[in-house]
Every structure is written in C-alpha cells, then in structure tokens.
TrEMBL record:
<keyword id="KW-0963">Cytoplasm</keyword>
<feature type="active site">
    <location>
        <position position="237"/>
    </location>
</feature>
<comment type="similarity">
    <text>Belongs to the MetA family.</text>
</comment>
<keyword id="KW-0028">Amino-acid biosynthesis</keyword>
<feature type="binding site">
    <location>
        <position position="249"/>
    </location>
    <ligand>
        <name>substrate</name>
    </ligand>
</feature>
<dbReference type="InterPro" id="IPR005697">
    <property type="entry name" value="HST_MetA"/>
</dbReference>
<feature type="binding site">
    <location>
        <position position="192"/>
    </location>
    <ligand>
        <name>substrate</name>
    </ligand>
</feature>
<feature type="active site" description="Proton acceptor">
    <location>
        <position position="235"/>
    </location>
</feature>
<comment type="function">
    <text>Transfers a succinyl group from succinyl-CoA to L-homoserine, forming succinyl-L-homoserine.</text>
</comment>
<feature type="active site" description="Acyl-thioester intermediate">
    <location>
        <position position="142"/>
    </location>
</feature>
<comment type="pathway">
    <text>Amino-acid biosynthesis; L-methionine biosynthesis via de novo pathway; O-succinyl-L-homoserine from L-homoserine: step 1/1.</text>
</comment>
<feature type="binding site">
    <location>
        <position position="163"/>
    </location>
    <ligand>
        <name>substrate</name>
    </ligand>
</feature>
<keyword id="KW-0012">Acyltransferase</keyword>
<keyword id="KW-0808">Transferase</keyword>
<dbReference type="InterPro" id="IPR029062">
    <property type="entry name" value="Class_I_gatase-like"/>
</dbReference>
<feature type="site" description="Important for substrate specificity">
    <location>
        <position position="192"/>
    </location>
</feature>
<feature type="site" description="Important for acyl-CoA specificity">
    <location>
        <position position="111"/>
    </location>
</feature>
Length: 313
C-alpha cells in the first residue's frame, strides 16, 4: 500500500517519477481500511528536501500511511517558501487533541548549540511529552535523538571535538529484535553530527536496548523496551548527494570541514558519491512501521492507552 499525501506536495511528483506508489486523498478515502496516522515534525531548514527523503522511506511498506507535516513554530523560513509552509504544515495547537500511530522528529543543524539556547526548546519538550500520551511510537533522528535522551533520561549534551561526517560500518547486537529483522550482520549508514553517543555511556545511564553500533560512530540504533521510543543517531534518509551538499556548504562558510569519510570514491571530493546505505534505510523504516507502530497501535486511536503496549512480541 502507498503513502497518502496531498497531490500538490512537491514530493508527490518526485516520488511518482521514481515509480513510488503515492495515493491521492480522494482514492485513499474510498478504501475500507484504517491507514496509519504518522506525524513528521520537520526541524530541518530545507523542509521540502527533508520531507521528500522521509516520505521515500515511509513509502516502502505494505501499509497505507497517512502523513501530516508539523512545524515547530511560525517563524519565517530562509530555505522554504512561506506558501509551502502555510499549505502543507500544521502548528502543534492544531493536532494536540488528537492521537497518532507514529511520530518522526527529524534532525536539526543545532549540534553546537546548548539545549537551553535553542529558541524552541521548551516547545519541543512540550511536543515530546505530549507524544508519550498521544503517539504509539516516536522515532528520534540525529539531533532529535540527543534531545529525546535529554528529555527521557536527563542526559546532558555530549559534543564531539570534531564533526562526525561520512558513511560508517555498523554491527547489529540483537538479530532477533523486531527493528533489525532482515538486517545483515553489518551494514553502512551515514552520519553528520557533533553529538556523541557512545555505547558505554548509554548502557550506564539508560535502560535502552542498544541495537546497532559502530567502532567509530558509536551507537546508531537504540530503543526503549516497549519500542515506543526509537533513537537513530545517523541519517538513513539522506540522498546520495546530501553529505556532499553539506560539505560544500561548510567550505563556503569557511569552516574547513574534513572530507566525509568513506563517502567519495577514493575519498576524492571530485568523484561522484554513491549511496551505499539505501537498502538498510528502507528496511529500518519498514520495520519501525510494522513492529513498533502497526503491531502495537489500537485500531481506534480514540482508545489510545499505554496499557496497549508490551515489551516483547
């Protein structure tokens, strides 16, 4: 089954061009099934690019997924047209009385900013606390993972001396965990962050299941026992050119960034990068939708209750 998004959303044309089945709202309304209701809180500056990346991963599922886009506040955007935000994004006040099957909170370019200095920090905390009572499973990505760990476990911000940028090898720790169904023993995934997620630190300070780690990048995937909170420290949604665009941007800003590791052929930025993480990115999102959302969520979202969730399948 496809994802259901507004016909006029720019991602619609991109995904259809890629032969991804995107269903119109009118056609979806004629199907006698309940689609999963998934909310995406998009914190990235280039919202159209980011929403397309996440919608691409969410589309690779036999489940029908009804997507709604959420913005953190109503401040003007330098990278996204106001018309786009007004047409396709909702404010939190418009959804806070409802329940959702899933919530995705994206990363944000705030790696060197202290939480208390983030202009929308208190509002983000409100949304994350709301999710604990209104969302079956929340997926925290990159910077949002660090924010989620601060909220749920009161872990202080841990910042690396140098930015972690590149594509890294990861090993899985529990091949029978639902989120890792179908994963190879080792896989590649991109990272672009200053945050530090060491396995020892999370094991000592949380009760999370540590599911996949890298010797260089640390923890990549972790989840609470009930799978209601899932943390992904990398960027499985990235396109093949996203790390390149970030590298060029940082060069233009005079930051002297290191070349993203294991990304360009022969580590030469003049060579065209090739995505080596796409299959596991799709598999991760398909597993999250199936095992953390669909298998756990009530059919009637009005009957949402924490009692619906179990730690094991």
């Amino acid at each position: 089954m496809p994802i259901k998004i507004p016909d006029q959303l720019p991602a619609s044309d991109v995904l259809r061009h890629e032969n991804i089945f995107v269903m119109s709202e009118s056609r979806a309304s004629s199907q006698e099934i309940r689609p999963l209701k998934v909310l995406i809180l998009n914190l990235m500056p280039k919202k159209i690019e980011t929403e397309t990346q996440f919608l691409r991963l969410l589309s690779n599922s036999p489940l029908q997924v009804d997507i709604e886009l959420l913005r953190i506040d109503n401040r003007p955007s330098k990278n996204t047209p106001t018309e786009h935000l007004d047409n396709f994004y909702r404010q939190f006040e418009m959804v806070k009385e409802r329940n959702f099957d899933g919530l995705i909170i994206t990363g944000a370019p705030l790696g060197l900013v202290q939480f208390e200095d983030v202009i929308y920090w208190e509002h983000l905390q409100t949304i994350m606390n709301w999710a604990n009572k209104h969302v079956t499973s929340t997926l925290y990505v990159c910077w949002a993972a660090q924010a989620g760990l601060k909220l749920l476990y009161d872990l202080p911000k841990r910042t690396r001396k140098e930015k972690l940028s590149g594509v890294y090898q990861h090993d899985i720790h529990d091949p029978f965990h639902a989120l890792l169904r179908g994963f190879d023993d080792s896989f590649l995934a991109p990272h672009s962050r200053y945050a530090d997620f060491s396995a020892d630190y999370l094991e000592q300070n949380t009760d999370l299941d540590i599911l996949a780690t890298s010797e260089v990048a640390g923890v990549y995937l972790a989840a609470t026992k009930d799978k209601r909170n899932v943390f992904v420290t990398g960027h499985p949604e990235y396109d093949s050119h996203t790390l390149h665009n970030e590298y060029v941007r940082d060069l233009g800003e005079g930051l002297e960034p290191a070349i993203p590791l294991n990304y360009y052929p022969d580590n030469n930025p003049d060579n065209k990068p090739c995505a080596s993480w796409r299959s596991h990115g799709h598999l991760l999102f398909a597993n999250w939708l199936n095992y953390c959302v669909y298998q756990q969520t009530p059919y009637n979202l009005d009957q949402f209750s924490e009692a619906n969730f179990t730690k094991d399948e």
